[in-house]
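R.M. (postdoc): so does anyone remember the format we settled on? I'll just put the structure tokens first.
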């Protein structure tokens, strides 16, 4: 009788162990799914941030281009200033070539 009871107890323990293993496997799978979804949400948020940063950068580049064009218009309208800048550049070039080269 004890032998039969021992076998049935072992069978019960094995089935209980199998059930516990199955529950643990299901828990690990659901946890893995949750972590994957969390990672996907993080990537989507990162893409959104990158996209908004690109838009901000494009606006800044357009504003800088407009400012450079305004400066260029003011410089081109003043011919004497252009001549002075050109002379200063030539003087620096000559000084560099004569004394440092």
């Amino acid at each position: 009788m004890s032998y039969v009871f021992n076998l049935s107890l072992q069978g019960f323990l094995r089935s209980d162990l199998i059930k516990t293993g199955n529950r643990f496997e299901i828990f690990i799978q659901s946890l893995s799914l949750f972590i994957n979804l969390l990672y996907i949400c993080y990537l989507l948020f990162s893409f959104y941030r990158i996209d908004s940063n690109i838009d901000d950068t494009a606006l800044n580049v357009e504003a800088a281009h407009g400012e450079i064009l305004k400066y260029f218009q003011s410089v081109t309208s003043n011919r004497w200033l252009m001549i002075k800048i050109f002379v200063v550049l030539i003087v620096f070039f000559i000084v560099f070539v004569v004394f440092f080269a």
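R.M.: ...and that's the designed sequence above, right after the tokens. Also worth knowing: DSSP finds two helices and no strands in the chain. The longest helix spans residues 2-77.
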